[in-house]
Records
---
Amino acid sequence: MRIKPHSLPTSRRHFLRGMGVALALPWMESLPLLGQIASPTAKAANKPPLRMGVVYFSNGVEPEHWWAEGSGADMKLGPGVLPMMPHREDMVFVQGLYNQTAASSPSPHLGRMNLLSGETVSLDPSVIRVGTSMDQVVAAKIGGRTAIPSLVLGIEPNELRLEDGLSMIYGSSLSWITPSKPAMKEIYPARAFDRLVGDGTGRKLDRSILDEVRTDSQNLRPKISQGDKAKLAEYLDSIRDIEKRIEHAAKEERLEGWHPTLEKPDMPRPANELPQNIPDHMKLMLDLTVLAFQMDKTRIATLMLNNDLSQMNFKFVEGVHGALHLDITHHKHVAALEAMHLKTNQYHIAQFAYLIQRMKDINEGETSMLDNSILMCASSLYDGDAHGAGQLPILLAGKGGGSLKTGRILDYLREDSENRKACSLHLSLMDRMGVTLDRFGDANTRLARL
């Protein structure tokens, strides 16, 4: 079935179709106007959708290097936030928010893995419970509008071992569908990609998706504007690029960071689809997040750059050597380890900056994809060495479709505890995503000044 101009204004979903494949197109200004002038209702419906993305990094920050001063283009940033310098005007630096149940938990790490729920983490080893995370609350409300209700990605595998008597499922999970059921994250780029180009459940790729939709894309080109032609070409190129990188990653045999429990497989070898080079892996997952938003396959995504109590080895970062991330962050004020922790902080924030730049570069009419998104970068701890959760390191980016003013600092550190709740932030963000609740976690008020 080919795209027909007269059918376009009646649907906000546009596809390129091949044998067994329906590839959702990015937002294009030309599409609703093909065949007829769009009605006011159609014009309103033509606004790009609002997306929400959360990027998580483990084990906190170096507090003395995590600061911001000023506003807009004149904002000054501490060393830990330095990779955000090009995006100061796209950012909100949030200081002083916390989850009370985390700050008071006797479990220094896993008891504080409630960043997106604010609920108490169960300390009973026989009971898994942490609260439904705010991304999944939004997904339950609006996720039916897209093929994938929410995209949950990660780099390190889920762990089922015990740490301090508690299940490492807490440390492996940011997103929770119910209080006792985590949304199991996908760490294989190829499988995440399969979901995006298929029906949302995944499909085996036996040849390039672009080969299957090439005819449809050629038929579409004469009907769209020059700007949209360039956008379509860029979109198809990005899919081809990810295909090539996944194919290349499948040939990698090196292991960094975590290691499997067996040195050799105890079953016939399947296709190796998991990149073992951490920078490549992270970049792929960030690109897949952008692609998912661009295809409108999902409007909600979370990405764990590493697990809590991470065993990731950051030797790929210049100046970092000889220790795993967990050991670096528990440095006991050893100067050399503190310096390496700062470098890992900067690396994490650089990944967030990369996501921002990718989304900023995607034009959606008079706005960018970043303008039509709300992004959060955060950790469940502040001072990783002291296990401090008295406040959380939080960066916001994107304009939320015009609902979020950026280029500023919001400091709640000196306010009373009622005005410092991270769950007040979550309520405010959920409002913008079209989900209004009277209460979430420990909060029943919205975040002031957001």
Note: Confidence is low (pLDDT under 50) at residues 1-12, 34-38, 252-272.
---
Amino acid sequence: MYTKKNYGFWMTFNWSKKPFIIGLLYSGIICLLTYYFQLSISLPWQPIGVIGIAVAFYLGFKNNSSYDRTWEARKIYGGIVNDSRSIGVAIASFVQGDNADVIKKELIYRHIAWLTALRHQLRLSKPWEHIENRINGMYAPVVCEDYDNKLHKELSEYLSEAEVIELNSTTNRATQILKKQSERFQELKNSGYFDDFRHMEFHKHINNLYDGQGKAERIKNFPFPRQYASTALWLTLVFCTIVPFGLLEIFTGNIWSQIFCSIMSALIIWVFFLMEKIGDYSENPFEGTYNDVPITSISVGIEIDLREMINDKNIPLPVVAENGFLM
């Protein structure tokens, strides 16, 4: 997530400069060929303008839909924050008896392990995401490389080695951690650490956490429908291809008019492709780009809250934005 007030103009332009450069070269060739060879290849601007309006509406639909995915993802993690605090305060309050402090720490740490496993799973790249940016090191999360070893190392900070090894053989570690947590609650209830009523409360919290995980996985594992994403790209490309031909009818005269025609064509092409790219980069709110939900920061924030509830030691500091990027 980008945390500064605004993206700088040059930062935005550098991110989207390719359409402008290609558009400038493309329209420049058309305008100069028209000028030097006196070609009559201009098109009336009115039908081109109608196409542009239609494309703009379609891009608006796509961007709104992409934003809805991002906002839903943030609401899901907001729910996970609330459910995590609720189960944390329940653990701190309900668990009583011998070795209660040790058991509270075990349960809190297992929940933090669940947050860690879920965060890593949501950062894994999908074929429809911007994998090339991760490979080029443009963004911080690089969990895909050596995923198993990295997750094993982090989980070992919160779980026993035997439990981590057992998890390594499973497909969805976050799911299995919650299952283990539920089994542990049953064991503690049978041992008299809390009564039936409080056990049911813990079970409700587990259900809520599974609900949040499932909602996050729904967004992660189901892409923005490819027919809408692809159509937006191709319509933008078609419109931008005919833009210079429409401006030829407007910019007539000496060589400077043709140069200005090329620049205006490139600007229009850049604006439309910029809108398309913004929607494209908002479709996948968990892949770790500048416009995504900062699930690492949120997870660390939850960890701090939970460990402070049991007066734990060596509590981590909040994640700090680096160059305006909060992971």
Note: DSSP finds twelve helices and no strands in the chain.
